[in-house]
Design brief:
alpha/beta, Rossmann fold, 18% strand
Length: 217
């Protein structure tokens, strides 16, 4: 049983997209999935409840006092809990980081995204000290444009900051935009390949169990 928290102190970096992909793709694998939407904008819970494509037990919870007990209860009953946080360094975000087995920090290709992503990684390190346990964390590049100067520059800044980065990147693809309109995580095309790669990387990290992808109707 694992908890994946998606967090960054910058809004618009792709947090909800990452949370949607992981939660939906995990359901496609036959896993029992819960999600906590700790964002005041409640985009993840709206997506899950509006379409109902996947059997995700989703809770909108912005009260930090309730977040950790809720996450613990859901973890006991599910294979995976995904927590989507607010786009700010709020106390609820710190709590969500503190109870995570893995923190994914989305970053788009801009200087401000990279700066805030690195700040969030430092926040995770502080949470590790407070909880006296190692909290794994990785930056994941979103809305990625390969073979561009801005990609090279952004990745260079991340390397200079010595922060771990996921091998899988979520490119700027129509499939990820369509997901917000049809409620379905892409299974085919280039976007689908990225989803498979991301889930395989999470398997290799031991955060989710290795299972064959299956469609959930």
């Amino acid at each position: 049983m694992s908890i994946i928290t998606v967090a960054t102190s910058k809004g618009g970096a792709g947090k909800t997209t990452v949370a949607q992909v992981i939660a939906g793709a995990s359901c496609q694998r036959g896993l029992k999935v819960a999600a906590i939407d700790a964002d005041y904008n409640h985009s993840l819970s709206d997506w899950a409840n509006t379409f109902g494509t996947y059997p995700i037990e989703v809770h909108h919870e912005v009260n930090e006092a309730n977040l950790v007990p809720l996450a613990s209860d859901l973890e006991d009953k599910h294979d995976l809990v995904v927590i989507d946080t607010a786009g700010a360094a709020m106390q609820a975000t710190v709590f969500a980081i503190g109870c995570a087995d893995l923190v994914l920090v989305p970053s788009q290709l801009s200087s401000s995204d990279v700066i805030e992503a690195v700040k969030t990684m430092h926040l995770v390190a502080s949470a590790s000290q407070i909880t006296k346990r190692k909290i794994e964390a990785r930056i994941i590049l979103t809305d990625y444009q390969p073979h561009t100067n801005i990609a090279e520059h952004s990745e260079g800044e991340l390397r200079a900051s010595s922060v771990p980065v996921m091998k899988t990147k979520l490119n700027r693809l129509v499939g990820f935009k369509e997901m917000t309109f049809n409620g379905e995580v892409p299974l085919t095309g280039v976007a689908g390949q990225h989803v498979v790669k991301l889930m395989f990387e999470l398997e290799q990290m031991g955060v989710i169990p290795a299972q064959k992808m299956v469609r959930v109707s």
